[in-house]
Amino acid sequence: MSTPIATIAELWRYPVKGMRGERLDALQLDAYGIAGDRRWAIQSTGAPRGKPMLSGAERASMLLFSASGAGAGQSTVVTSPNGAQCSITDPALLNSLRQHLPGGHDLKLLQSETPMTDVRPVAVLSTATIRQLSEELGQPVDPRRFRANILLAFPSENEGFAEDELVDRSIQLGAEAVLRITERDPRCRIVTLDPETAIADPLLMKHLDRRHEGHVGVYATVERTGWLRAGDPVVPL
């Protein structure tokens, strides 16, 4: 086997599209992507044309809600901005969402066996890229802005955007799982939103457009299922 080029620094799952996610020590890759990732979504008659499922990019207030517990045998729980918790299927959730969405919204809960992502099922980013962006901007950049599932730690001497070099290659993570890195990740308005407050600041997006063609991180698809764990080695195949 080849020498590891990185390790897994963080793992994230977003049970409900557009809401905050949860950081976990281990995740399972199934045939479709991260098990339990974005398998729930909220459909709205007030969503932008052609995008019926609410996301943080279109409705910043979605980021004020957090979701957790989407693994096998687990019930997905949503925490509202006031700290109240309810099951994803509780009608109280849609009522709470309506209070935070402008205008009249007819909301419907959607569930899917496959991730309701916009492009590919898995998003990968590196700590080196976050470090470089922070240096370029002269202020800390929160990696949660990019909503990646897998945050890689390359050797300290690696420059940012090292993950871009993996496009069109396969990588093994841990003992079993294999991802195919498919393309760079073109970023949208959601990166301008503070992951804690949902307050917008256009500076980051302007910087990405000017310096990095609007791209940060990479997309991936699943070639072989298996478990991922924080600290696992990453090996190119």
From TrEMBL:
InterPro entries: MoCF_Sase_C, MOCOS_middle, MOSC_domain, Pyrv_Knase-like_insert_dom_sf
Protein name stated in the entry: Putative Fe-S protein
SUPFAM superfamilies linked: PK beta-barrel domain-like (SSF50800)
Species annotation: Terriglobus roseus (strain DSM 18391 / NRRL B-41598 / KBS 63)
Pfam short name (any one): MOSC_N
Transmembrane portions of the chain: none
Domain (MOSC) ranges: 86-237
Any one Gene Ontology molecular-function term assigned to this protein's record: pyridoxal phosphate binding
Top-level taxon of origin: Bacteria
Gene3D superfamilies, A to Z: PK beta-barrel domain-like (2.40.33.20)
